[in-house]
From TrEMBL, chain B:
Keyword field: Aminoacyl-tRNA synthetase, ATP-binding, Cytoplasm, Ligase, Magnesium, Metal-binding, Nucleotide-binding, Protein biosynthesis
Documented EC number(s): 6.1.1.20
UniProt-recorded name of the protein: Phenylalanine--tRNA ligase alpha subunit
Molecular function terms from GO: ATP binding; magnesium ion binding; phenylalanine-tRNA ligase activity; tRNA binding
Gene3D superfamilies on file: Bira Bifunctional Protein, Domain 2 (3.30.930.10)
Predominant place of localization: cytoplasm
Pfam families: Phe_tRNA-synt_N, tRNA-synt_2d
Enzymatic class: ligase
One GO term (biological process): phenylalanyl-tRNA aminoacylation
Organism: uncultured Acetobacteraceae bacterium
Required cofactor(s): Mg(2+)
Cofactor binding mode and count: Binds 2 magnesium ions per tetramer.
Family statement drawn from the similarity comment of this UniProt entry: Belongs to the class-II aminoacyl-tRNA synthetase family. Phe-tRNA synthetase alpha subunit type 1 subfamily.
Subcellular localization(s) per the UniProt record: Cytoplasm
Length: 825, 372
């Protein structure tokens, strides 16, 4: 909300604090100053000047040579290009050295085509006061020569803009801001008790509340004998300063009180009101309102409206209709001062997407006790500004809602909740300055009545308790809330006005001398997965969790349930199925920038459905392009085995039971069908997927391969059991190693051979490693040679040749039986 | 015009075109590879193809027939061209599938014993790094890390936090919605990490001390707003926790995180629906030089307050027995301030050059202060 400094001071007695102190105080007490615009500061060097003579420039068709009385006794020569420069006019003069805000240039003395120019006459745009640059500012005859322009134009009044939080409807008014300032010790709030305007006639229009949902309470008053026209300078200046456009006196007065008192009013032209009644009712389907902002709104049965005999005149609490508004020809008017339901206004305003100053106030809740005084003040000012006239009786419908309530504060809570030792007198003083009235006070506590404008204090409590709570527990918690909330409200009021800097900070007491682990085992494993990938040369990314639905579909399902209803861009409309998808697009962008060889990783969400269980934590990685060229190691394309190595490295580091894992070639469709695999624990539990990326997916994301990636499903990895390691197994005898080469059919997996060999003698065989794989001309077609090294670990005695031979035979027999292999000679 | 040409154009043209269509489709279907497909294409649409010949002959037809026949021929041409293209796609797909099958690798082979050689060491993203530092500092104060889903219910994100449907504060949360589920409610992408406060209070008995780092989403995109960003939330519930503890906890954290022992910290009264009293917190800096802890300016850095009694009650915690505080701050913001980074957008763009410049070493331990 915006206001000017002088406007604010008008509500305060004895507030002589300078602007910076006021701004600092406002921010500290919760009315955050978002900007201070001292328009006068930039205009300070500019003075009112008199053009004594304007003649054609001797050497330029489009310029004039002026003699200008600067007001300081000098007559200056000024060259001016403005078409409206003329002898005798009053204008705004800038002297050399002045900074011209509209152009960003500091003025210098010059000579233009042989004529000296010792100053500059300014347009509105050059002063930074709007877009008008058709000519120089043409001031009225009576503008005082030599006077500072800013003061003359009423621009020397700084404009303050504050952010008002949603709970503080009362602070959407200059008076409300002044009240808070006074409570904080900057001046005292002036009383506001406008004298009633005598009622001279019976109002020709009365109110009807046909539906209490549409309006609770409304006042109105007719005016006649008006001469509406432009409002006076002081009022126009005030509205312009806060960014409003002056319309005419009647409308300007309503806008003034919207900001001055936070009390939106509406004024109808009586001659345009049909029938003798204005009715508060709900809109009917099919009704529309042509609003003051030039837009037409199709109303629903949930919108509260004001209607006359001819139809809807106003969307209650939000915006008036164009048809019945006041213009310069208005001689009879009807003022509306109503109270609307905040929730209904909020929902209507959101439904029609109308943001108005009225809505901002009504949806926060208005002061019901201010309606009559505000109506009197507005009536008086309208009559004063519109050349007299007279006012009718006040007509009304509905009843002022009962806003009176009390709240109690145990002084102990100021320390117990707020952490501040506040003397009770000080606390009570603050509450009183804020308008709370003491009802009862003891040594331990004070009970106050809540002022009509503070609907946020001791308000009705609406809970949204978790449905699964046991009823007894829910009830106790709700009672507890009702018991403490009003007191919390009061603690907050005292603390914020007193100053939060007076609350001494206290370090959190330690619960246990040594803190407990802050990460769960799963969280610790996630951090470990990041480190494993980083240590393997991958750069961690943090991509958007949404992407184009078409791209997401390349990685499996892109369900409608995960399509954003209101995406910010059409290519960010689908929750991604896997972070691998994001990495592929990132790799494509990096390749396009000239970096085709990338190793990217991300530990993040993959989304299968909107339920909490449908959001998996996935460690994904992607390598693209080739390994670097190096003398010691030739460059090669990345491949599925790189991805498998990455995936297994994570699984091993995270404690997955590596010996119990199996790999099969049934990777999902975004992997190469022959070069991708799935790592499982047992028959079903998928721990990871890896492989080269399918060429179709690469083409779709604009990446020219090679690319190999993996996804480790972190949630699926079982938590390792907390087992003691026990003593290390350190046999006293040397291990024995024997190599075997098997000829197998191409379809036989290496895993099958290794497993069979390992299982040949579980007691003796410590390890089996594949060290060669050969397929080629020297072998029969469709055959592959797999060579393994078997490590035997004797425990009781050194092995004899016969024992070794026997185990070897068992190894060969087991592999032959399991895979149909033949031992190569 | 010869009689022959006239007859060709006039004798049962429909049958003739039908036959061409049938034969061409059969020929395309019979083409088993791209070479056979190309022969079929040339035979039909090539310079001396059958359809091309018919089109050429059109000029010889009488004007009154030309129009009807021309139309029919052009429709057929479009149809056959589409069939030719479709068959090409089929054959190419089959060729690709055959090639991929031939490239089959035994995926059960043990991988190489080392990661592929890389020109550069890998790195940890600055967001992850900051989360680890936060965890270390708050961990020393006895906080545990809690997490929750990115897609959450309206109730967790708003209702339980005392932000009812009509609340003006909802306007400040530009919320992303997903389609309504079976219950008629639209799930949301959480607009803050605060729903995890609710989840924590519903699953843990007080006393509670958790921080919640995580992804958050708002429908806002410009130089200083990203539709996805990261927050860390803090929640302390105990019997005698006051606003003084909140101030102490935040001052201790901020000074440790930024590594400035005397960093000025300022508290301003504010409002959030889920805390009361509420405070915004500023740190001292110099607008001119951007240096933290120097100069006379203030920079807003986080929001905080005592947990609102309604939030406790919504979770079944009796506010007469328990009270506490909560706070939330932007992880990118404190990361940018700490490291002098000037632009938010590259955090999410995965530009290798930016990542290499800003990443933390995966092997570096993190200490409590300054993240070492």
């Amino acid at each position: 909300m915006k206001f000017t400094l002088s406007w604010l001071r008008e509500h305060l007695d004895g507030c002589d604090a300078p602007l910076p102190r006021i701004a600092e105080t406002l921010s500290a007490i919760g009315l955050e100053v978002e900007g201070v615009q001292d328009r006068g500061a930039a205009l300070a060097p500019f003075r009112v000047a008199h053009v004594l003579e304007a003649v054609q420039h001797p050497n330029a068709d489009r310029l004039r040579a002026l003699k200008v009385d600067a007001g300081d006794g000098r007559v200056l020569s000024v060259v001016c290009g403005a078409p409206n420069a003329r002898t005798g006019m009053k204008a705004v003069l800038a002297l050399p050295g002045a900074f011209i805000p509209g152009t960003g240039i500091t003025l210098k003395t010059g000579e233009i085509r042989g004529v000296p120019s010792e100053g500059m006459l300014l347009s509105a745009r050059e002063m930074g006061l709007g877009d008008d640059h058709a000519g120089i500012v043409d001031l009225p005859e009576d503008a005082p020569l030599g006077a500072p322009y800013a003061a003359w134009a009423g621009l020397d009044d700084p404009v303050v803009e504050i952010g008002v939080t949603p709970n503080r409807g009362d602070a959407l008014s200059v008076r409300g801001v002044a009240r808070d300032l006074a409570a904080a010790g900057l001046g005292t709030l002036k009383p506001f008790a406008p004298a009633p305007v005598p009622d001279a006639f019976a109002s020709p229009v009365r109110w009807e509340i046909a539906d209490p949902r549409a309006c609770v309470f409304v006042l109105g008053r007719a005016l006649r004998g008006l001469r509406n026209g432009p409002s006076p300078r002081w009022l126009q200046d005030r509205l312009v300063a806060i960014g409003l456009r002056p319309i005419n006196a009647l409308v300007d007065v309503t806008n003034l009180f919207t900001f001055d008192l936070g009390r939106p009013l509406h004024v109808f032209d009586l001659k345009k009101v049909h029938g003798g009644a204005l009715t508060m009712r709900m809109a009917r389907e099919g009704e529309a309102l042509a609003a003051l902002n030039g837009k037409e709104y199709a109303l629903t049965a949930e919108d509260g409206v004001i209607a006359d005999a001819a139809g809807v005149e106003s969307l209650g609490g939000i915006i008036g209709g164009a048809h019945s508004g006041c213009d310069e020809g208005t001689t009879e008017a009807f003022i509306e001062c109503a109270l609307f339901d905040p929730v209904r206004v909020a929902l209507s305003g959101r439904r029609h997407d109308v943001r108005t100053d009225a809505r901002a106030r009504f949806e926060r809740g208005l002061d019901p006790a201010l309606m009559r005084p505000a109506l009197e003040a507005a009536t008086r000012l309208m009559l004063d500004l519109c050349g007299g006239g007279e006012a009718s009786e006040v007509v009304e419908a509905g009843a002022e809602p009962d806003w009176r309530r009390s709240a109690s504060l145990r002084f102990e809570r100021l320390a117990g909740l707020g952490g501040a030792d506040v003397p009770p007198d000080e606390a009570v003083g603050i509450l009183e300055r804020l308008g709370f009235a003491v009802e009862a006070r003891g040594a331990e506590r004070v009970t106050v009545s809540v002022p009509s404008w503070r609907n946020d204090v001791a308000a009705a409590i609406h809970l949204a308790q978790a449905p699964e709570l046991p009823p007894e527990r829910a009830r106790a918690a709700a009672e507890g809330c009702a018991a403490v909330e009003p007191e919390c409200d009061l603690v907050e009021e005292v603390l914020r006005i007193r100053g939060l800097h007076l609350v001494p900070p206290v370090s959190l007491p330690v619960g246990t001398p040594v803190p407990r682990p802050s990460l769960t085992p799963k969280q610790a494993r996630t951090a470990l997965a990041r480190r494993v990938l980083g240590a393997r040369g991958m750069q961690e990314c943090a991509s958007f969790a949404f992407m184009a639905a078409g791209a997401a579909a390349l990685f499996g399902d892109a369900p409608d349930a995960l399509r954003l209803v209101n995406p910010i861009a059409s290519d960010l409309d689908q929750m991604r199925p896997t972070p691998l998808a994001s990495l592929l697009m990132a790799a494509a962008r990096n390749a396009a920038r000239g970096f085709p060889d990338a190793a990217l990783s991300e530990v993040g969400g993959g989304y299968a459905d909107p339920s909490p269980d449908g959001q998996a934590l996935v460690a994904a990685g992607l390598r693209t392009g080739h390994t670097p060229r190096h003398w010691a190691e030739p460059s090669r394309p990345v491949d599925a085995m790189d991805a498998k190595g990455d995936a297994l490295a994570i699984l091993a580091a995270l404690g997955a039971p590596m010996a119990a894992l199996s790999v099969s070639a049934d990777a999902p469709g975004h992997y190469h069908p022959g070069r991708g695999g799935v790592v499982r624990q047992g028959p079903r539990t998928v721990l990871a997927r890896f492989g080269e990326i399918h060429p179709r997916v690469l083409a779709a994301v604009g990446l020219s391969g090679p690319a190999a990636g993996f996804e480790v499903l972190l949630d699926a990895i079982p938590e390792p059991k907390r087992r003691k390691r026990g003593a290390a197994d350190l046999p006293a005898f040397q291990p024995v190693r024997r190599d075997f080469a098997f000829l197998v059919d191409e379809g036989v997996s290496a895993e099958a051979v290794l497993r069979a060999a390992l299982g040949a003698d579980r007691a003796l065989i410590a390890d089996v490693a594949l060290f060669d794989r050969y397929a080629g001309d020297k072998l029969p077609a469709g055959k592959v040679s797999l060579a393994v090294q078997v490590t035997l670990q004797p425990r009781d005695a050194t092995m004899t040749d016969a024992q070794i031979e026997a185990v070897s035979e068992r190894v060969v027999a087991a592999v032959v039986k399991a895979t149909g292999a033949a031992l190569r000679a | 015009m010869t009689d022959l040409a006239t007859r060709a154009a006039s004798v049962a043209p429909g049958d003739e075109l039908d036959a061409l269509r049938r034969e061409s489709v059969a020929e395309l279907a019979a083409a088993a590879d791209l070479r056979a497909w190309d022969a079929a294409r040339v035979g039909l649409l090539g310079k001396s193809g059958r359809l091309t010949a018919l089109l050429k002959g059109l000029g010889a037809a009488p004007p009154e027939e030309r129009k009807a026949r021309g139309g029919a021929l052009n429709r057929l041409k479009a149809e056959l061209e589409a069939a030719v293209e479709a068959r090409r796609c089929e054959l190419e797909a089959a060729a690709l599938d055959a090639r991929l099958l031939a490239e089959r690798l035994d995926v059960t082979l043990p991988p190489r014993p080392h990661p592929p050689a890389g020109a550069e060491a890998g790195g940890i993203h600055p967001i992850s790094r900051t989360v680890e530092e936060l965890t270390a500092i708050f961990g020393a104060m006895g906080f545990a890390v809690a997490e929750g889903p990115d897609v959450d219910s309206d109730w967790h994100n708003f209702g339980a936090l005392n932000i009812p449907d009509h609340h003006p504060a909802r306007q400040d949360h530009d919320t992303f919605y997903l389609p309504a589920g079976a219950d008629g409610r639209r799930p949301v992408l959480r607009t803050h990490t605060s729903p995890v406060q609710i989840r924590t209070m519903l699953t843990q008995e007080p006393p509670i001390r958790v921080i919640v780092p995580g992804r958050t989403f708002r429908a806002d995109h410009d130089a200083t707003h990203s539709p996805m960003f990261h927050q860390v939330e803090g929640l302390v519930i105990d019997r005698a926790i006051t606003l003084g503890h909140l101030k102490g906890c935040l001052i201790d954290f901020l000074r440790a995180f930024f590594g400035i022992a005397d960093l000025p910290v300022r508290f301003r009264s504010s409002y959030f629906p889920f805390t009361e009293p509420s405070m915004e917190v500023d740190i001292g800096w110099s607008r001119k030089t951007g240096e933290l802890g120097k100069g006379d300016d203030w920079l807003e850095i986080l929001g905080s307050g005592m947990v609102h009694p309604r939030v406790l009650a919504n979770c079944g915690i009796d506010p007469r027995e328990w009270q506490g505080f909560a706070f939330g701050m932007g992880i990118e913001r404190i990361t940018m301030l700490k490291h002098g980074m000037n632009d938010l957008r590259p955090f999410y763009e995965s530009d290798l050059r930016w990542l290499r410049h800003n990443a933390a070493s995966p092997l570096a331990p993190f200490s409590l202060a300054e993240g070492a």
